[in-house]
C-alpha cells in the first residue's frame, strides 16, 4: 500500500505526525493508500517557505507567470489519461466523467493564461493640478485552498490557478479522501516551471484546517465543501481577519413546465440527477413538474430510463453510467435517507438499494432511485442527499414551483424546462439562486464567467474563477501622486486635494 506524502518546496515530503487517513478505491472497497495528516508545525514550515517563495514569485512579471500557466495547461492536456485514471481510482467516477472533471479545471487554467489582462490597474491623469491617480492590484501573499472530495482535479485547479497566476503562493489542503490527483497536479505545475514553494500541498483533517484558519501569515481562504463546514470556516477565518469565500452544499431544483419538450427534460434529469452518482454540487436532486399531466407523463418517461442505468466500476469502461459512492458510510447514509422517504410517505418508484455487483461486492455501490409525491417537510427534501436519488415534488402552477425554490435554504443551481420565453425570463429574473439553466440542466458557468451560489450554498462575497477570482486574490492599492508643478506653497489643512 502506498504511503502518500505532502508536496513541499517542489518535492514530496513524508509526514511526521504519525497520523494517517485511509484512501479507498470506492469501486472495490480496498485501501489503496494512506495519506498523512499534518500537524500545525508541519503547516507552519510549509507556510514559512511559501511566504519567501511568494515574494520572488510576485516580482516575476505577469506575462512570465502566464507562460508557466501555458505550460501547465499543456502538461495537463498531455497527461489527461493518467490524471483521469488516478481520479477515477480514488473517487470512483467513470473515466469520461473524470476527464470532464480535469477539463473544467483546465479551462480555468486557460483563462489564467490571460491573467495579465485581468490584473491591469486603473489610471486617471491630471486628476488635479499636477496630480495623477492610479490603482494597482497586488497579490495578497500566502493564501489557502481547502477542497472537497467530489471534484479532485477541477476544484483544486479553480483555487490554485487564479491565486498563483495573480502572484500569490498557495497552501492547498485537498480532501483526505481524494488527495492523489492534487499531488499529480502539483508535480505537473513544478514541471511547468512554477518555482518551488509557490504551491504547497499539505494533507490533513480538521486539525490542519484549524491551523490554516488561525495562521497569521495566511491572508485568505478559499473553501469548497458541505454547508456546515463552509459556515464554520467562514466564521473562523473572518474572525481572524482573513478574506474568505466558502462554497457549500446544494439542493438543486428543475421546473418542468407543461410546454417543455418532455423527452429532452427526462434525459436532462437522468444526466443531472444520476451522473457521478449524484455526488455533484450542481446535481439536480428535485424535479418539479407543473400540473398533473406533465408529472404523469414525465414520470412515465423517467422510469425506464432510470431502470436502464448501468452502475459499476470505472474499469468497466463504456458499459457504466455511474460509479460507487465515496465511502461505505456515505452509502449507508444515502440508503438510510431513502428508507426515511418511504417511512414519511413518499412513493419510491425505482429502488436502487441493495445493489451488489459481481466481483465488486465490497464496493460502495447503490443504484439509481426515483421518488414521486415528495413534500417539503420530508427529510429527503430537506437534506442534501448527495447520492443517485431524484425526488419529484408535484406543483400545480409555475408560481408555486418558483416559490418552492425561493423558500429553499440552498441556492446553488436551478433549471427550468419550457418552450415559453416569457416564463424562462421571469424565472431567471426572480429566482434567488446563483446559477440558472434555461433548458440546460447543469448550468456551471464557463471559466471566463464565475461560479457561485446564493443563500446557504455560499458564504462571503465574490465567486470562484473568472474575473471575481482575480478580485478575491488581489488587493487594491490606490496612489495619489503629485509632482512639483502641482505643489503650491504652504500647508493645506482642508480636506480638498483636487482644486
Ligand atoms: P466536507 O465539508 O466534508 O469537506 C470539505 C473539506 O473540509 C475537506 O478538505 C475536509 O478535509 C475539510 N473538513 C471536513 N470536516 C471538517 C471540519 N470539521 N473542520 C474543518 N475542516 C473540515 O465536504 P465533502 O464531503 O468533501 O464534499 C461534498 C460537499 O461539498 C457537498 O455538500 C457538496 O455540495 C459540496 N460542494 C460544493 C461545491 C460548490 O461549489 N458549492 C462544489 C463541490 C462540492
TrEMBL record:
<dbReference type="InterPro" id="IPR016163">
    <property type="entry name" value="Ald_DH_C"/>
</dbReference>
<protein>
    <recommendedName>
        <fullName>methylmalonate-semialdehyde dehydrogenase (CoA acylating)</fullName>
        <ecNumber>1.2.1.27</ecNumber>
    </recommendedName>
</protein>
<dbReference type="InterPro" id="IPR010061">
    <property type="entry name" value="MeMal-semiAld_DH"/>
</dbReference>
<feature type="domain" description="Aldehyde dehydrogenase">
    <location>
        <begin position="16"/>
        <end position="479"/>
    </location>
</feature>
<dbReference type="Pfam" id="PF00171">
    <property type="entry name" value="Aldedh"/>
</dbReference>
<dbReference type="GO" id="GO:0006574">
    <property type="term" value="P:L-valine catabolic process"/>
</dbReference>
<keyword id="KW-0520">NAD</keyword>
<dbReference type="InterPro" id="IPR015590">
    <property type="entry name" value="Aldehyde_DH_dom"/>
</dbReference>
<dbReference type="GO" id="GO:0006210">
    <property type="term" value="P:thymine catabolic process"/>
</dbReference>
<dbReference type="GO" id="GO:0004491">
    <property type="term" value="F:methylmalonate-semialdehyde dehydrogenase (acylating, NAD) activity"/>
</dbReference>
<dbReference type="InterPro" id="IPR016160">
    <property type="entry name" value="Ald_DH_CS_CYS"/>
</dbReference>
<dbReference type="InterPro" id="IPR016161">
    <property type="entry name" value="Ald_DH/histidinol_DH"/>
</dbReference>
<dbReference type="InterPro" id="IPR016162">
    <property type="entry name" value="Ald_DH_N"/>
</dbReference>
<keyword id="KW-0560">Oxidoreductase</keyword>
Amino acid at each position: 500500500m502506498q504511503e502518500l506524502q505532502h508536496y513541499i518546496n517542489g518535492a514530496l515530503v513524508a509526514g511526521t505526525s504519525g497520523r494517517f487517513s485511509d484512501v479507498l478505491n470506492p469501486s472495490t472497497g480496498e485501501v489503496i493508500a494512506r495519506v498523512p495528516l499534518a500537524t500545525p508545525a508541519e503547516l507552519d514550515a510549509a507556510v514559512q517557505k511559501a511566504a519567501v517563495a511568494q515574494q520572488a514569485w510576485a516580482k516575476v512579471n505577469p506575462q512570465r507567470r502566464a507562460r508557466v500557466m501555458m505550460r501547465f495547461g499543456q502538461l495537463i492536456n498531455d497527461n489527461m489519461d493518467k490524471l483521469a485514471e488516478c481520479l477515477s481510482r480514488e473517487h470512483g467516477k467513470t473515466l469520461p466523467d473524470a476527464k470532464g472533471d480535469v477539463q473544467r479545471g483546465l479551462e480555468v487554467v486557460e483563462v489564467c493564461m490571460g491573467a495579465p489582462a485581468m490584473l491591469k490597474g486603473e489610471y486617471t491623469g491630471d486628476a488635479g493640478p499636477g496630480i495623477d491617480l492610479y490603482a494597482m492590484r497586488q497579490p495578497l501573499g500566502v493564501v489557502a485552498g481547502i477542497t472537497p472530495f467530489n471534484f479532485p482535479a477541477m476544484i483544486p485547479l479553480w483555487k490554485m490557478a487564479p491565486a498563483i497566476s495573480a502572484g500569490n503562493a498557495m497552501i492547498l489542503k485537498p480532501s483526505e479522501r481524494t488527495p492523489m490527483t492534487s499531488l499529480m497536479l502539483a508535480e505537473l505545475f513544478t514541471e511547468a516551471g512554477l518555482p518551488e514553494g509557490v504551491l504547497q500541498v499539505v494533507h490533513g483533517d480538521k486539525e490542519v484546517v484549524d491551523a490554516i484558519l488561525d495562521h497569521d501569515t495566511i491572508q485568505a481562504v478559499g473553501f469548497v465543501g458541505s454547508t456546515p463546514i463552509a459556515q464554520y470556516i467562514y466564521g473562523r477565518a473572518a474572525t481572524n481577519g482573513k478574506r474568505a469565500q466558502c462554497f457549500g452544499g446544494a439542493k438543486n431544483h428543475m421546473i418542468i413546465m407543461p410546454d417543455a419538450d418532455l423527452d429532452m427534460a427526462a434525459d436532462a434529469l437522468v444526466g443531472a440527477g444520476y451522473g457521478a452518482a449524484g455526488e455533484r454540487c450542481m446535481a439536480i436532486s428535485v424535479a418539479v413538474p407543473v400540473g398533473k399531466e406533465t408529472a404523469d407523463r414525465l414520470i412515465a418517461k423517467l422510469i425506464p430510463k432510470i431502470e436502464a442505468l448501468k452502475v459499476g466500476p470505472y474499469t468497466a469502461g463504456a458499459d457504466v453510467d455511474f460509479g460507487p459512492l465515496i465511502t461505505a458510510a456515505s452509502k449507508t447514509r444515502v440508503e438510510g435517507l431513502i428508507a426515511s422517504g418511504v417511512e414519511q410517505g413518499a412513493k419510491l418508484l425505482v429502488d436502487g438499494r441493495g445493489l451488489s455487483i459481481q466481483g465488486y461486492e465490497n464496493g460502495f455501490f447503490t443504484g439509481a432511485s426515483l421518488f414521486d409525491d415528495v413534500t417539503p417537510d420530508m427529510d429527503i427534501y430537506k437534506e442534501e442527499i448527495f447520492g443517485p436519488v431524484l425526488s419529484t415534488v408535484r406543483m400545480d402552477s409555475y408560481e408555486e414551483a418558483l416559490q418552492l425554490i425561493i423558500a429553499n435554504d440552498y441556492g446553488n443551481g436551478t433549471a427550468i424546462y419550457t418552450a415559453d420565453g416569457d416564463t424562462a425570463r421571469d424565472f431567471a429574473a426572480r429566482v434567488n439562486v446563483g446559477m440558472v439553466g434555461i433548458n440546460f440542466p447543469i448550468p456551471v458557468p464557463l471559466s471566463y464567467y464565475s461560479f457561485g451560489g446564493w443563500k446557504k450554498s455560499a458564504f462571503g462575497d465574490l465567486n470562484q474563477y473568472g474575473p471575481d477570482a482575480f478580485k478575491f486574490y488581489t488587493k487594491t492599492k490606490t496612489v495619489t501622486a503629485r509632482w512639483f508643478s502641482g505643489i503650491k506653497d504652504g500647508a493645506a489643512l482642508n480636506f480638498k486635494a483636487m482644486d
